[in-house]
Design goal:
Layout lengths: L1 H4 L1 H18 L4 E6 L2 E5 L5 H12 L21 H23 L1
Length: 103
Amino acid sequence: MNDNLGHEAGDELLAAIAKKIITIFQEAGCYRFGGDEFIILSFDKSETDFQNKLQKLSKLWTAECSASIGSVWLEHAKDIEKNLSVADEKMYVNKNHYYKNRF
C-alpha cells in the first residue's frame, strides 16, 4: 500500500483495519504491535466464541488486501510472551501458506 499509494493511504488502511478488529473483538484489548501487525488479547468465555470471531476477522480480507492470522487459545494464559511467540509462529505459517498457494 505504502509503495503504490503512499504512506497516508497506508495509515488510513491500518486505521480502517483497527476499527474492524475492534468491531469484532469489542471486549478485547486491541493493540498495534508495530508496522502492520496487531495483537488482540481476547477474554472470550469459550474457545468456540473465540474461533467464531477469528472466522469473522478472516472474512474481511480480499485479493487486494490480505492478512495472515496467528492465534492461540488458552484457558489460563500464564506466560504472555510465550503465547505471543506461538501466535506469531502460526501467523508466519499462515503467511507462507498464502504465498505458496498464490503463486
